[in-house]
Amino acid sequence: MAINKDNYLQINATLQKAGVTLVAVSKTKPVEDILVLYNLGQRDFGENYVQELVEKSRELPNDIRWHFIGHLQTNKVKLIAPFVQLIHGVDSLKLLKEINKEAGKNKRVIDCLLQCHIAQEETKFGLDGEELNTIIEELDKSPMLDVRVIGLMGMASFTEDKKKVRKEFHTLKELYEKYLAQQGSNLKWRILSMGMSGDYQIAIEEGSTMVRIGSLFFGERARKQ
Ligand SMILES: *Cc1c(COP(=O)(O)O)cnc(C)c1O
What we know:
This protein is an alpha/beta fold.
């Protein structure tokens, strides 16, 4: 499938003007496709599967900033800890502790986002408000030196109902603002990762600072998930 360069150039220009960071989601797509956007200047790429990310990172230029946006299993953290730029989907204290441990081994500090459950769908991973609060309190009590929690990530319901999507993004933005307002020494928030191909415009209107877009650039994916 051909890469839609026009979509990329146009969306990238709009996002730059709005001060929103673009993560190009390249999961299931070959390295040749990634290189097309790389050659247009794109450096932030997002992947969902650990093995695929590791393989691609070996084959592609090392100034690419790799974002892990999928559901991360604790036992796979060590595979991406040496190079990952930002882990978007942290949804437990256990996972955060593992990332902290592996970051330390690699003499790195790894940036993470806490994934919040904002969609009404059952299938989406993420923390509810109470679980989020517990993790943040825990971090305040016993700071982890080798991870930096720098914001939140969320996915809205997959629906045509734009009002519903807007409301879900709005909820996430409110949570983000709430914790931004009470920044302790261990919180240095600056990223609100929300918005994908189908809903990124609404996400930006609701205050997103980072969007994750795949199919608008790379075309539809085979139904792997
Ligand atoms: C696949 C994926 C995206 C990109 O989805 P598109 O609809 O192709 O833009 C964004 N975020 C996450 C977490 C994803 O899994």
